[in-house]
Design brief:
Layout: H1 4-9, H2 17-26, H3 29-38, E1 48-54, E2 57-63, E3 68-73, H4 82-93, E4 97-102, H5 103-118
Helix pairs in contact: 3-5
Length: 139
């Protein structure tokens, strides 16, 4: 079941609505392949959104129950670009966990990626849907 409180409390830029819709319709192959494994509660019986608007960004996948964003990167870049860093920091400031996978990994190692996601510490919590706000203790 969807955690509506988390979902509705995220910042939303309505001017990105049409762009998100276009991205969902277009879909690239890695995104479509991963979506087939995530949607309709196929992954751990969780509800995911595709091309979710969060603030001024559109993320590839979002799971409100665990406050997780899954992003598909075109290449593996350890340092990332300035834009990626700003985006990542913004999402983390909202209390979201951001998991990066590459297009290559999805195309060539999808079963392994699903295994990694299945065992990711974020999805091991017994209490999905806890408050999305970061801990005030600095953890």
């Amino acid at each position: 079941m969807r955690n509506r409180e988390n979902y509705m409390s995220l910042p939303f830029n309505p001017s990105l609505r049409e762009r998100a819709r276009e991205l969902r319709k277009a879909g690239n192959l890695p995104e479509v392949l991963l979506w087939q494994r995530l949607h309709k509660n196929k992954f751990k019986n969780l509800d995911f959104d595709r091309q979710k608007i969060i603030g001024d960004y559109i993320v590839d996948f979002y799971c409100t129950n665990y406050n997780v964003v899954i992003e598909i990167d075109e290449i593996s870049h350890k340092d990332g670009t300035w834009h990626d860093k700003v985006r990542g920091e913004y999402l983390k400031s909202l209390g979201l966990t951001v998991i990066h996978v590459t297009s290559y990994e999805i195309l060539h190692q999808l079963d392994n990626i699903m295994h990694i996601l299945e065992n990711h510490p974020t999805f091991q919590s017994n209490h999905p849907g806890a408050s999305r706000h970061p801990s005030k203790e600095g953890n």
